[in-house]
Amino acid sequence: MTDTFSFSLAPCPPPFRGTRGLTAAGPGGAMTDALFHQTAPREDDASAGESAAPVDDATFARFQAGDQAAMTEVVRVLNGRVVAFARLYTHSQELAEEVAQDAFLETWRKRKKVHSASKLRPFLFTLAKRMAMREMRRKVHRVEFAIEDDALLAIAPALDAAQGDGLRQRDMMRALRQALARLSEKERDMVLLRYFAGLRIREVADALGMPMGSVGVTLQRTLDKVRRDLEHQGFALDDFV
């Protein structure tokens, strides 16, 4: 098998909508695993990331062995979400697509360093962020965080329900955007990897180099901070669920 691979990304579909947004407490007050209600992370964490399914073990084995058809499948499964994630940092669809292509190619070249299918997404998303920030520093010498409306809708799909009141929806988006922007880089990365990129708790831990148990604790603390920030801006949790 050759160690080179050539491909071009298909045009990205319209920005996706996430499936892991804000949800309220269920009957009896049981908390669901959503942005403001985080249950203790499970080892398998099977509910996460269904909108960007992880690459299965058989495809990963072929990918790691140098099978270009398997690489094409990896790109097909993960391309849209990697581009959207990169766009959070590039603020440009064209540049995000370039970053995604470079990230896929670098992942292909370094596939032997990815030891299992569960490590592939953390490796790829971490690489995409690093490349996006490097490109932005090269172009503007400074990287600013500016989350787009589509990303907000992915994190909090209930914002769609406010479309009938355009002014209120804009105010809610502004509040959530500001709350996320006030987080530290690691806190924000944790929220985006979990609820926008759709990574499982274990994958978030791998991407950020943290113990899995620490991710759950830190994530809950971060989400509490976001909730308090929203309340300070005059919005109740129920406005977003």
List the helices and strands and how they pair.
Blueprint: H1 57-64, H2 68-90, H3 93-109, H4 117-140, H5 149-155, H6 166-181, H7 185-196, H8 201-208, H9 212-232
Helix pairs in contact: 1-2, 2-3, 2-4, 3-4, 4-8, 6-9, 7-9, 8-9
Care to describe what's here?
The chain has 241 residues and is mainly α. Helix 2 packs across helix 3 (93-109). It is built from 9 helices and no strands.
Keywords:
241 residues; mainly alpha; 9 helices; globular
Summarize the structure.
This protein has nine helices and no strands.
Order of helices and strands: HHHHHHHHH
Q: Characterize the largest beta sheet: strand count, sense, and whether it forms a barrel.
A: none
Measured by DSSP, the beta-strand proportion falls in under 5%
Shape: globular
Number of strands: 0
Query: Which residues form runs of ≥5 with pLDDT under 50?
Result: 9-52
